[in-house]
Amino acid sequence: MGISASQVKELREKTGAGMMDCKLALESAAGDMEGAIKHLREKGLATAAKRAGRVAAEGVVVARRVSAGESVLLELNCETDFVAKTEQFSELADQLASVIDGCDKVDGEADTGSIGLGAMQIPGGGNVADTINDRIASMGESVVARRVGRLAPGEGQGVVGSYIHAGGKIGVLVEAKSTVSGDGAAEIEGVLRDVAMQVAAVSPRFARREDVPEAELEKEKEIYRGQAAQSGKPEKVIEKIVSGKIEKFFSDSCLVEQEYIRDSNLTVAKLVEEAGKKVGAPIEITRFVRLQLGEASGEA
Asked: What Cα–Cα distance (Å) separates residue 122 from each residue in 65, 84, 149, 150, 190?
């Protein structure tokens, strides 16, 4: 039977496949649209399997605000910056990020494999793995959802601020304990967005000094003791030197103790303290998630 141009056009619009592929698929399925889609899907999946093995270190990190008390991040990778900047790729990233909304499997940062993201259902669509394979077939590049982040203390218990830096190269979430809600929560979100900018720019290793593992702290102290001992100073003086260097370590490595990048007269802790006074409720930064594009592939 003859295949009309309108049939080819309809199949192309539904699948994103090339015109000739659509025509051949329709011929193979004797003009049946669903059969042609199945044919392209099977062909696309075979192509996707080959493409999925290629390095995907470009892409984008997107943030999705669910509420004042919950936000998520998703890192979606592809092979070229050209594809990363397309509307189709951007829409896919937003679509996949919506899957993490309210997902209790994600608390902080997680690799997508560890939470079984591929098997999760997209609202109003199929599962994540099939959707990605469809996009691989139509985009012609390897596409990998590598990592996700989710902070969700819940409204009335905490607030989450987010920030995306450098056109999607870095994404940050910052969580703070707070009982504030309504307009006050919105104001705190704005402050935490500024703090998230700090995390993107300075890349602290920890949120608070309490988060530094004891073993790492002891290792730092030993290094400082060794350095100070070479000066020949008395033990009491050496310990004072070590104590001072540890304080410097905390101010460099811990977010709340860092100098605020927008005002050198403030630390991040002081910035948040002043914001708490303004809204009439104490605020305490508890943790953050920072995803930088390509880190998991070793190519950041």
From this structure: 17, 21, 17, 17, 30
- Spans of all domains in the chain: 5-51, 58-207+257-297, 213-253
Q: Of 171, 220, 226, which is closest to residue 200 (Cα–Cα)?
A: 171
Residue 21: per-residue pLDDT? 77
Protein fold of 58-207+257-297:
Tetrahydropterin Synthase; Chain A (3.30.479)
Burial of residue 140 (number of CB atoms within 10 Å: 0-12, 13-18, 19+): middle
Tokens of 23: 């025509």
User: Are the C-beta atoms of residues 196 and 172 closer than 8 Å to each other?
Assistant: yes
Does pLDDT of 243 surpass 90?
yes
Q: Smallest Cα–Cα separation from 136: which of 148, 120, 118, 124?
A: 118
- Kindly give the interhelix angle for 5-15 and 128-139, rounded to the nearest 10 degrees: 130
Q: Which listed CATH number (1.20.1250.20, 3.90.550.10, 1.10.8.10, 3.30.420.40) goes with 5-51?
A: 1.10.8.10
Taking the whole predicted model, whether its pTM rises above 0.85 is answered as no
User: What 8-state DSSP symbol labels residue 277?
Assistant: H
Fold of the 213-253 domain: GTP Cyclohydrolase I; Chain A, domain 1 (1.10.286)
Cα(110)–Cα(213) distance, integer angstroms: 20
- Give phi and psi for 146, each to the nearest 5: -95, -50
User: What pLDDT does residue 99 have?
Assistant: 95
CA distance 67 to 89: 25
CA distances from 24 to 7, 37, 39, 227 (A): 12, 11, 9, 73
Torsion angle of the four alpha carbons 44, 48, 49, 52, in this order, in degrees rounded to the nearest 10: 180
